[in-house]
Write a structure and sequence with these properties.
This protein is of the alpha+beta class. It has a domain of 135 residues: Four Helix Bundle (Hemerythrin (Met), subunit A), CATH 1.20.120. The chain is built from 21 helices and eleven strands. Strands 3, 4, 5, 6, 7, 10 and 11 form a seven-stranded mixed β-sheet that branches. The radius of gyration is 24 Å and the shape is globular. The termini are far apart. 53% of the residues are buried. The model has no long low-confidence stretch (mean pLDDT 95).
């Protein structure tokens, strides 16, 4: 079963679940009419199905390789990248004033979902450029914007993000890369960076690295870090790639998955760089790119889940094995109860995760279009949930996809195992899912839980309205939101932040479960009597949503029980 873009799902979510219409009613996005959005998604579907999907296995088998200091990408990647660039897909949400399409982030998120399903290893390249475009648009000087933004948006050049060092992973403030003023407005950047996605390729004219480094007077920790643009080739007076900069790809990592995407160790030896943003304010600028990327990575997980689900469904519809309980059935394994359970869980969780991600994107759009602090707070609240839950669902659905295939899922030729290998990193990069959860219960709760409770008010209001038609489903969603509210109040009342951290991951998961129930309920209300979306909502709310209770019990257990277990207790006996 070849990949098919789920265009009907996107249309339904936009029209009935996440409220794209309110975005389209703003002055900023008035030109993103329903007809235009439908046309864009249709073209994106063709790109995913016809151009990217055929490269999924090619990228895995051939992989990216380093030859004589340069990266060679898998066959067909260059042509597919040019199709992405020429279609304008890289600059979808960038402002028209700088050459972008000016589309809502919600629409760009749907397109990235499609491309992630089709070929994640290639989609990661434009995703990195999109994040860099946003960071430069908000923080760079006019000269840097004028030089780099048109070329990044057109896809002529590509962008990367350089944070991690061997001794500085999640603790970015421990970085050792340094920047020395050259006296002419440029800086000499020296240091080593690791885990740099798409640090080089053989199809763009230049690769533009955003690099975190410390100026001589930079304070220790994150407050002393600055951000620099360090291109592979130094642009000449006409803006064309000139002399080679003093940087190189030292090696490519041998990874579990994403073989088509080169992940490099980068060495900077006095490379010429330009300051982006204010001195010592690099983390602020980089977080602009990272927040963009966190939603994008959550969508990568969802896209991979979609691809894994479609592959598993196709296999289950064709594979015949044993007797099935369906009278007059075909004998395919989809008729076995456990296989049906797995497929239903996969589809229900994909819908929940996709609705959360698109709702986050709508909040980003509304904040941008209106300047309203309430929308800004909602976008901030939903970002770690969208990232962590989207990638968790990606990993879990991919694993279920292998299980549906049975023994054939363990055989590489079916493609099921590749989804499981490729998606796994999404729960790690752009901030591990544990860090996302810690962010949710710490920074995102600095308002005393106000943004969270406003969202829960909305959930319960819609559940109340649904009681007349779907009383049991609505009551279950309302009750789950009330339980989540009580735990939220418990969390914000903790004096010890570590008590929050100890339960952060189950709390985030419970929040996502409740939101999933809410969005499924909205879908059921829009579906009409007894439709397929109502049946899927009933499956989720009755069988999956109850997990929230156990998760919230875990979330409220505090830290003490973790630390009464000593390291000796954890040691191998």
């Amino acid at each position: 079963m070849s990949y098919r873009a789920p265009l009907a799902d996107f249309a339904f979510l936009f029209d009935h679940v996440v409220g794209l219409a309110q975005v389209q009613e703003t002055e900023l996005f008035a030109e993103a009419t329903p007809d235009l959005v439908q046309a864009i998604l249709s073209e994106a579907g063709k790109l995913g199905e016809e151009v990217l999907a055929p490269l999924q296995r090619v990228g895995d088998i051939e992989g990216a390789v380093l030859e004589n200091g340069a990266v060679r990408t898998p066959a067909g990647f260059g042509e597919a990248y040019r199709a992405i660039a020429e279609g304008g897909w890289i600059g979808m949400s960038a402002s028209p004033e700088i050459g972008g399409m000016g589309l809502p982030q919600a629409v760009a998120t749907a397109v990235n979902d499609i491309m992630s399903s089709a070929c994640l290893s290639l989609q990661l390249n434009p995703l990195m450029s999109q994040g860099q475009i946003e960071a430069l648009e908000h923080h760079a000087s006019d000269d840097i914007k004028a030089l780099y933004l048109p070329r990044l948006i057109s896809g002529e050049w590509n962008g990367t993000m350089n944070l991690t060092e061997p001794q500085a992973g999640s603790d970015v403030g421990a970085l050792r890369s340094r920047a020395e003023p050259n006296g002419d407005g440029t800086y000499a950047i020296t240091g080593q960076k690791i885990f740099i996605s798409w640090a080089d390729n053989d199809f763009t004219a230049n690769t533009c690295h955003l690099v975190l480094a410390r100026l001589p007077d930079g304070a220790p920790g994150t407050k002393g870090i600055s951000l620099f643009m360090v291109p592979k080739f130094i642009p000449d007076a006409d803006g064309n790639p000139g002399g080679r900069n003093s940087l190189k790809v030292v090696s490519l990592e041998h990874k579990m998955g994403l073989h088509g995407s080169p992940t490099a160790v980068m060495q900077y030896d006095g490379a010429t760089g330009w300051l982006v943003g204010a001195p010592h304010a690099g983390m602020r600028a980089m977080f602009t790119m990272m927040n963009n990327a966190r939603l994008g990575v959550g969508v990568q997980g969802i896209g991979q889940a979609e691809g894994a689900y479609q592959l598993a469904l196709g296999y289950a519809l064709e594979r015949k094995q044993g007797r099935t309980p369906v009278q007059g059935g075909t004998g395919a394994i989809v008729e076995h109860a456990d296989v049906r359970r797995m497929l239903a869980a996969m589809k229900a969780d994909i819908f929940a995760a996709r609705a959360i991600a698109l709702s986050c994107a709508v909040a980003i759009d509304m904040a941008r279009a209106t300047g309203d602090d309430g929308w800004r707070a909602r976008a901030a609240l939903l970002t770690p949930i969208a990232k962590a839950f989207g990638t968790d669902v990606g990993c879990e659905v991919a694993q279920l996809g292998v299980q549906v295939h049975g023994g054939m899922g363990y055989i590489e030729e079916t493609g099921a195992a590749q989804f499981s290998r490729d998606v796994r990193v999404t729960a790690i990069y752009e901030g591990t899912n544990g860090i996302q959860a810690m962010d949710l219960v710490a920074r995102k709760m600095m308002d005393g839980g106000e943004a969270a409770c406003r969202l829960l008010d909305e959930v319960q209001s819609h559940a109340e309205a649904a009681r007349g038609r779907l009383p049991d489903l609505a009551t279950a969603v309302w009750d789950s939101a009330e339980s989540l509210r009580e735990t939220t109040e418990w969390l914000v009342g903790r004096d010890e932040l570590n008590d929050r951290f100890a339960g952060a991951v189950p709390y985030l998961r419970a929040f996502a479960r409740v939101l999933g129930g809410y969005f499924h309920l909205r879908a059921a209300m829009a579906d009409g009597e007894g439709g397929g979306r109502t049946r899927l909502a009933a499956f989720y709310i009755r069988r999956i949503l109850p997990e929230h209770a156990a998760l919230l019990t875990h979330a409220r257990a505090g830290a003490e029980g973790l630390y009464t277990l000593t390291t000796d207790d954890l040691a191998v006996q």
